[in-house]
Amino acid sequence: MTDLERKTSEEVAATSTEAAPEEADIVFEVEGLRVHYGSKQALKDVDMRIYRNRVTAFIGPSGCGKSTFIRCFNRMNDLIVGAKVEGRIVYHGEDLYANGVDPVEVRRRIGMVFQKPNPFPKSIYDNVAFGVRVLGLKDDLDGRVERALRQAALWEEVHQRLNDNAFGLSGGQQQRLCIARCLAIDPDVILLDEPCSALDPISTSAIEDLIDQLKKQYTIVIVTHNMQQAGRIADHTAFFSVETQPDGHRTGVLVEYDRTNKIFTNPSDARTEGYVTGRFG
Amino acid sequence: MIAEAPQRGRWAGLVFQCFLVFSLAVGVITLIVLFGQVLIDSQGYLDTSLLENPPSALPELAGARPAILASIYLAVLVFGFSVPIGVLTAIYLEEYAQKERWYNRLLELNIQNLAGVPSIVYGILGLAFLVRGIGLGRTLLAGSLILTLLVLPTVIIASREALRSVPPSIRDGAYALGATQWQVTWRQVLPAAIPGIATGSILALSRAIGETAPLLLVGAVTYVRFDPTLTSAFTALPVQIYNWIKQPQDEFKLLAAAGIVVLLVMLLVLNSAAILLRNRYQKRW
Amino acid sequence: MAAGDIVHAQARPSLGVRRRRIGEDIIKAILGLAALVSVLTTVGIVIALILPALDFFRAVSPVDFFTGKDWAPLFQPAHFGVLPLLAGTLVVTFIALLVCVPCGLGAAIYLSEYAHPRVRSILKPILEVLVGIPTVVFGYFALTLITPTVLRGYLGLSTDVFNALAAGLVMGVMLLPIVASLSEDAMTAVPNDLRAGAYALGATKLEVSTRIVVPGAISGIVASFVLAISRGIGETMIVLIAGGTQPNFTFDPRVSLETMTAFIGATANGDVPTGSIEYKTIFAVGLTLFVLTLAMNLIAIRLVRKYREVYE
Q1: A-chain residues within 8 Å CB-CB of C6?
Q2: How many domains does the structure of chain B reveal?
Q3: Of the candidates C5, C6, C15, which has its C-beta nearest A106's C-beta?
């Protein structure tokens, strides 16, 4: 293990305490969720609960459906032609996939940060302000932008050049900018789809610290292919794996979901154990 | 030993290369000779009277003022009509239409086909529907509408390319922030595509200015000596040039050459603007 | 802050409230209308051509029209055989193809396989300029330079003032960039691996270009030819100015002729009484022209799709 991966399992056990799951609020109740792309099933039925102000991580080998799954939470799969989502995700008492639910409203409460930083080709200020303007909240725009940038730990580095093009920032800064623009619209939940996979280790560490701070106010769900990262920052971890169907195509399936320290120190399923001990990638 | 061996097929290769260069030369030399010829011919007639005077039976007095004005007005009108319609159609096809549906596929095919319809057929369309059908008559307005339809496929195709070149990650980022489809399109995709759209529109416009055939059917039949208005008869510059070429006297042919120089200068200005725009905004990504 | 956030989220309208975004619907309607313009254009063209043409064919038998060798609609007695116009169009286009097919292909091969990138970046825009020149200018060039100085002067041919040769040659140069551009696109799409493999076997550049690249890009190249034919058939000003308006059922390129497009242009530019038989000839000839170019365009579109599929 390198310097960065220094947290031992004891430290992992120590951080993910706080309230026991049964006492913390439930933000999402996922019931029988499955996803098809065309005729191929990408994700088998998933049941799980996501808790407030916790970091929940999805880990697993590539192709196991974890990115597909996280995109269900903010209905981003709607934008993919041929994608079909069945089942329920109950959010504060309402099913996200009920008839008549407006995906736009869903996305205003459940924000997302993507794998490759994708700032808009505009100034830093306009990037952060975009979501706010789209919501129609014109009052105190400057204030909202500043608060968002401070929360994303980017304010100090950019406040003197808010009108510069966002592409002038480094990769790590761009990703924090994407987080800031997500924060600017006061979401409830933040989804992060492998946010550090395109970044260097130092930027990665900065973002992990940021996530640790953010979970005090927001509920965080993160997909990561780096299980040590899950071990460092996540309170709960879900392990997904790949199942090959009789006709040859591969479907993702939820194998085990529990507190992080249990997943890493004493997993119930043999597949989980195989993955976390590195016997297969 | 290898160095001494004769290169296989050396002569054939050289002859072939000569042919290739010759092929290119045909185009380049024609271009040079054409420009040279036009410039030489236009010598005596390239003066301010060309720009200020209306046409006349006397070549020394004749000018192309109404024609130049008509072409400028046409350019403005065509730009104003074709860009909104063309860009909106492109947005529909790229951002909103479900590509598998048959009517959208047909729409695409239709546009590609319209791009290849001879320009004189557009003239026939104009003659039948606008001039005689609706009764607009041979007016500037009718001419601008027909030229709009003529260049519309070009604007649509260029705008689609521009929209397509905007990376999907921009759209994803905007959607994820709770923007509606139109907000994503209007506030992120379209602004990013504007350089490409502008370049394409200007090139389509320069094609419209150079077009003669449709205007033969929709423009004035006889001399137009007055400055044109929206509802008046008109003669665009290329048609004026054609009228002069038709005249039996040789002086009118030289006058036509002068008119050609003016036309080419107008096109040069437009195309340079397009190239400048393209270069200035290409560094974005 | 945490409490404030939760309050904020709850202050928003419930997800289940079906807010029909009227703005979005209006936008979709406007976009659909814009797209409709191009549909209406085609419908308009078809109606504008077919209705009067049908009228025409009620008065003149289609057999006479398509097989008659005499085109004299304004004479007494009138003759409506379209073959002279068709012959004029085909002769000019054929001559144009004699120029633009080899030279366009040659230019494309040079730009794609031989030229230094810097040379390419200079030459390509120059060819693009040719595309932008108005056809009336080409017509002028054909009439005032090619016929008197080149054909009659250098080559000593005895041609009429208006002839198919001048028009065809100049049209060929006008079409050259179209062939060159589309062929070059098709050739650059051929993957370099194919070239590398051939070079590694000791093939010369000539062999690689003609035996590997050109066959590999053939559907795009043929598409460019078909497109050039279509453009040539539909071209008006060059043939009107340099070819003349005297229909002649002949394949001799040195004499005056009239193409379908020139006929339409010349006739409609005059005052023809609406509803008269002469007026309707415009549409009958126009319909013939449209059908011909439509067929060519559909073939070309098909071919372009084919070559794009193979490599992308």
Answers
A1: 188
A2: 1
A3: C15
CATH topology of domain C79-311: MetI-like fold (1.10.3720)
How close A118 gets to chain B, by Cα (Å)?
Answer: 6
CB contact under 8 A, B213 and C261: yes
Q: Considering only alpha carbons, which residue of chain B is nearest residue A184?
A: B177
Establish if B255 belongs to a structural domain.
Answer: yes
Sign, CA dihedral A119-A120-A121-A125, equals negative
**Which pair of structure tokens corresponds to residue B16?**
């072939």
Number of compact structural domains in chain A: 1
A258: containing domain: 24-118+189-276
In a domain, B126, yes or no: yes
Indicate whether A29 belongs to any domain.
Answer: yes
Q: What is the DSSP string of C9-20?
A: HHTSPPTTS---
Regions of chain B where pLDDT drops below 70: 1-6, 131, 282-285
Domain CATH code at residue B77 = 1.10.3720.10
For the segment C83-87, the average pLDDT, to the nearest whole number, is 91
Contacts of B114 in chain C (CB under 8 A): 38, 41-42
Residue B183: its chain A contacts at CB < 8 A? 134
Contact C213, C113 (CB under 8 A): yes
Q: Within a 10 A sphere around the Cβ of A148, how many other Cβ atoms?
A: 24
**CA dihedral over A144, A149, A150, A156, signed as positive or negative:** negative
pTM for the full predicted model: 0.87
pLDDT digits (tens, 9 = 90+) for C3-57: 333 334 444 556 655 556 788 889 999 999 999 999 999 999 999 999 989 988 8
pLDDT per position as a tens digit, B142-186: 999 999 999 999 999 999 999 999 999 999 999 999 999 999 999
Per-residue pLDDT tens digits of chain A, which is 281 residues long = 444 444 444 444 444 444 455 556 899 999 999 999 988 999 999 999 999 999 999 999 988 899 999 999 999 999 998 899 999 999 988 999 998 888 999 999 999 999 999 999 999 999 999 999 998 888 899 999 999 999 999 999 999 999 999 999 999 999 999 999 999 999 999 999 999 999 999 999 999 999 999 999 999 999 998 888 999 999 999 999 999 888 888 899 999 999 999 999 999 998 998 888 886 65
Single-letter code of the amino acid located at C182? L
**d(Cα A120, Cα A184) in Å, to the nearest integer?**
15
Query: Residue C117 is which amino acid?
Result: P
The pLDDT of residue C12 is: 56
Mark out the alpha helices in C142-259 (DSSP H runs). Answer: 164-188, 192-200, 205-207, 214-216, 218-234, 237-242
pLDDT at C7: 36
Nearest 5°: phi and psi at C255? -105, 165
Residue A21: burial class (beta carbons within 10 Å; 0-12, 13-18, 19+):
middle
Q: How far apart are CA B34 and CA C138, in angstroms?
A: 8
Indicate the domain borders of chain C: 17-59, 79-311
Is the residue at B166 inside a domain? yes
